[in-house]
Give the backbone structure.
Amino acid sequence: MFVHGGLGSLWNPYPQLAAFEGNHELVTYALAGNGNSTTRPEQSLAGHVSDLQSLLDELDVTNPIVHGHSYGTAVAIEYAKRHPTAGLVLHAGGDHDLTPAWEKPLLRLFLALRLYHIPTNDALVRQLAYSVGFHEETSEAVVEDFLQSNPLPHRRSAWTTVTEAFWGYDGRTDIERVGVPTLVIHGPADGIVPVEVARGTASRIPGSVFCQVQRTGHVAMIERPSAYNSLLEALVETIRDDRDLETAVRESIDGKHSSNVPDDRNSCCSNRCTTPPTPAVVAPNR
């Protein structure tokens, strides 16, 4: 179950949807007020968690693996605290401090002047993507493909989802209620959510594994899809075979070191990488 972040879309994880199609049951959706989803009378984090449960009930899905990206990690965490969950993936987010200093004045300006209606403001999003979203060595083709696949939303409700539901989120007080295998994945060049937030989140979730995917920023799932997908497969294997998550992740990494199969041009296993070619893994906190 893929949960996108603020101003994101259900298509954010398109490399994962393509890679896992036919092998796993996949669900991605637009948060209330985003995409073609209806708007909630009141935007709140609790409301988004309730929406997720209602969707899963409608689909007759139990014990999902919930993948949250950016602000979507807040939905994933709060869902896992309250509902049966098989596992979690928290990417480019965490249990607090998800809002960069520059975001509040920028979004307030957009809402006050209704700038979200103006297509030319996509240029600003493009500038932000290159400056704080992606690693500087991520190819322009990858960045532009992501931006074209995930255009800036022009519905006001998509913007108020961020300001009303996610600003000020702090889920640390009862984070220990998350008791399932959890991958916390972050890019060292993330200019939106500091890597320290992700590392701290992992330290508070029992049995979690923190993974840093080299040469990525806020969207490692787009920048290094092959390495990222191998981590997701390690989590699935952990749950399916009742294995130790850290062991499964380390074996996945070792396998990429020894594999001679060519990787995609932006994978961490690319021969062009000069930094560690696979995700650096910090031992889980138990």
Summary: Residues 225-241 form the longest helix (17 residues). Residues 209 and 246 are 6 Å apart (CA to CA). Confidence is low (pLDDT under 50) at residues 259-286. Residues 2-285 form a domain with the Rossmann fold fold (CATH 3.40.50.1820).
